[in-house]
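Input record (one chain):
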Amino acid sequence: MPSGKYRAVIGETIRDTSNSGLAAGDINGDGLPDLFVCGMEKPNALYLNRGNWKFENITELAGVACEGWRLNGALFSDVDGDRDLDLILTSVRDTRNFLFLNDGLGNFTESLNIGWVYNQRAGSVGSSMADVDGDGDLDLYVTSHLNRTPGEILGPKEMERIHQLGEAARRTGRPMPDEWLEIYSVRKVPITPTFNKLVTDVSHMQDHLYLNDGRGRFRVVTDNDQRFRDAQGRPMPMPKDPSHEAAFRDVDGDGDPDLYVCADFDWADRFWRNDGRGNFTLIDPIALRRTSQFSMGIDFTDLNRDGHVDFITADMLSRSHKRRKTQMGFMQATDVAIGLIRNRPQIMQNTLHLSRGDGTWTEIAQFAGVKASEWSWGLAFTDVDLDGYEDLIVATGMIRDFMDADATSEIENAIKEKTTINALLKSTIYPTLPTRNIAYRNRGDMTFEFMYAKDWGFDAKAVSGGLAQADFDGDGDLDLIFNNIEPLEIYRNESNAPRVAVRLIGQPGNLQAIGAKVRLLGGPGNSNGLAPMEQEIHSGGGYASGSDPLAVFGTGNKTEGLKLEIIWRDRGKLTRRIIPNVKPNHLYEITQNGDDPLLAPFASNPPSLFKEDFEKLDVQTPKGPVRVGHGETAFDDFAYQPLLPNRLSQLGPGVAWTDLNQDGIEDLVISAGRGRPMMIYLGQPGGRFQFVQGPLADLDQTGVIGWIPKPNATPTLLTGISNFEAPGKAFDHAPLFGLSPAKKYSIAFSLPSQRSTTGPMALADVDGDGDLDLFLGGRMVPGRYPEPADSQLYLNENGKLKLDGANTAALKQLGLVSGAVFGDLDGDGDPDLVLALEWGPVKILRNHNGKFTDATKACGLDAHKGWWNSVTLGDFDADGRLDIAAGNWGRNSKYEESYSRANPLRIAYGDFDNNGVVDIVENHYDKETGTWVPERGRSCSMNAMPFIGERNKTFDQFGSGSLAKIYGDCLKDGTVLEANTLTHTLFLNRGNTFASHPLPAEAQFAPVFGMNVADFDGDGHEDLFVAQNFFASQRETPRSDGGRGLLLRGDGKGSFTSVPGQESGLKIYGEQRGSAVADYNRDGRPDLVVTQNGASTHLYQNVLGSPGLRVRLNAGPANPTGVGAIARLIFAEKKGPAKIVTAGSGYWSQDSATLIFARPTVPIKIEVQWPHGQTITTAIPTSEDEIEVTPQGTLIMPGN
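The corresponding structure, as predicted from the sequence alone:
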């Protein structure tokens, strides 16, 4: 494996500067990159590279001293088309920018041919250049940030006068006066799907785009030009946001530069798509699911080498547990945002956006291990160790820790409106915050490894800002310089691995070929199906800085068969050059000239496997069709237990396919939230539905299952009830209602009241008497989370459900059961029970003549303790045994990297302050200090348990303490549960034990709830659908929104590949819950329904799968749908995968009892293992598309 390391270079000729920007570029054409350093509070400097790491200060001689001006941004670029590098300088503190033109020898003259736009309360942070309008020259974008508040300029009396003008206009409904609009702006913040709150902000200076005429003369774009548009394409004014960095990249592959702008504080980042003519449109809100709160720097890469552009923005989350707790401060009440899907929350961490290839991204910084990099500024993706995968470098540190909660608490009353920004910056109450710069090594699997100082050489603690890369020593790799307060950090890249360096020379007007793309063909990973390594030549980046645009590719162990592909942008058109026989350890200088036209790929949109059939679920009203979704009523979960990790009131709905009216067509039932009606869709011929409004739910309904109580009886709809929101905490409540479809879904019976909340339900013939018995999973005990809940088994006695006393002890305090499914795992003919437990394992209860014993440890599953949500069964390796697929919390949460097998996540519970409330203390092992520490912060902890504030007077004391020191001896009286894996997992049945295999990475990006097994594409292998996302977490936890429903294509050997949403057709962005499979239009293809909490249900029709054989298994009058039966098709050469009929599986749901068998070749027989009976093999006719099989082996054809 190639190794990489930086070695610090002592820059004796480069003196102290500041944590602002810097720029690298060859200003005199000698082939050596030179350096400009912004001084901020110290003199600015231009250094000429004399070779061998010697630099000469030529600032005064070159004419770029800008004496007295505190500069913070620098960029070298050829703005006037004379084929030398000019210099752009910006200042946020002094509101003064400079454009210097180069004479080609490194002598500069200021140009006034640019109409800089200034504002007395804001300045310019940095600049980036690109040919935005396709005219062949480079245009300029400049970001702006506040340097003085309006109050500092106008004074409090004038501010109050203007404020009152605005209030008067608001009261009378008049437009806001111009004076008010100069100071304030109004933006919409989504609160619910239909309501936006108007937030008034103090206006900042807007960014500016300057268009180049090709000779270095610029014109500023104004709102009247209408070049910026909202997501609906309507012209909009440039936002008055406080911006840090802006970057141009071609993110959509059309050849023109798109624009991302990093906004500070709680202003939204702006992501603009370019139409190729310099007109920018905001991307759809759904395209990015969340962004960083304080976006500082940005850079781009192709992380997973799929040919699509990914990117990261930097924020200020610390890697240190102590600093996270001291920077957390006092917490606000947790918002309830039910059904709010199209908003874009901001979270205080780095955000890494992985492209899905269809113009949308999913955020995976937590999965990748790069969410935290201290108070971050400039950053860069660069292949440090030259292994073919770009690593991540981050500049960190701050003059003062203005997030320190103790300091804020100390001065918050004194600051008020009198303290200026400058005074705040000079305040010594806030502690200084020098930190080491950060390096993350790319492992090549979308995850990164933190590199310690001993690994890659970053050992200096400093306050850094911008960073610049260039090959300062001419060895073909990129060296690195950070601009610091105190001396610059200068690092030479010491990697000796093979590399290819490429410098492009563009046409007049674009000397450095900005916007061109360089690809190394045949490099690392290419032979494994990965896209070629690609770098886009860009100008600007690294936070107020500019690197030398030298493309460097590590070739790893690839030394032969290498090619370079260059994609040029030529006045809006694309051309292409191939350079064959590329040799490692060479510099290739390539000039744009006479290249072949590159034809744009044909924009094809091949049909997807599924098409959304949402109109089938519309409800007809006098005003036309209305789309109705699951209703969820807001509830304050934290009034019960303030430290709940997640809301427990937003766990539904469940969904079921079942024949309610016995017409032979399955109906669709969606459970309801409190105060809302159950949704029932009666199936009609031709795949249509008739809507019937079910009964109003007094409390949240959980799972739903259709049940035949006894032979020849009409169906009953079993509906689980959650008592969590019971008025007056009257938690003793019936756990289940039996609803009668024949009597307008009135309550036919209820089960005796109990304290535990009902979660999953499942039916099976447990005792072998031919009818179906019921398992009720205890999801929780209201107000006592995570105390284990009681589960129950009810035996069917002549159509009546009676509590099974024989299994009561085994099911009492079983745990927090979230998913349940029955299936014969050991081949003995009776149904075993598989359970998904939160804070526990996937549990297996073996059935021996109706008596259950815990076989979890014997099956090898006891070591996998997680936050399991769901379980389902399928024969994924086609060996005839039922395997287990289990949905967990995933590996893209804030908890990632806080646990391991040896040191799991823990939760302690008990009444620690003796007030009658079950307290919760989440904790984990902190690798830095070697102690167990609390997950939650001081503010929320002492709100729940006031003694925490008394024992820990400051945030520093809380952040520095171990769990034992913070809480004292009280935790010794509590109970502790553990979770050592959050990975969604496939457990392959090996007979007496199960082998664990993680589901693909894309499945790990969000929690999984619904899970469904079917051969969706009809290739003969079982596939898996997973429903994803959870938003209803407490305030300290970002919502889990990394999924949109995912189809996993099975290979028949126990492995899966992820199917992109544009290929599967599945794109569901909300909180998915129950999901279920049925062939509702009877075309031989398995279709899919997916519910969402507080939002609409999605119905998908399978349109491209190969039609299969529809099979119904009739196990007799008491079990006419064959629940528990397992069937396989037999082909001439082999047997197909086994399929089981279940009633209750996945997450609170019921799949259709009609099995769909793929027919990759012609089947000749069907083998059925009947519940508690024998295995029968029956020949099947090749002409039929649908059959019904009886225990005697009789085939019944449709219509017979």
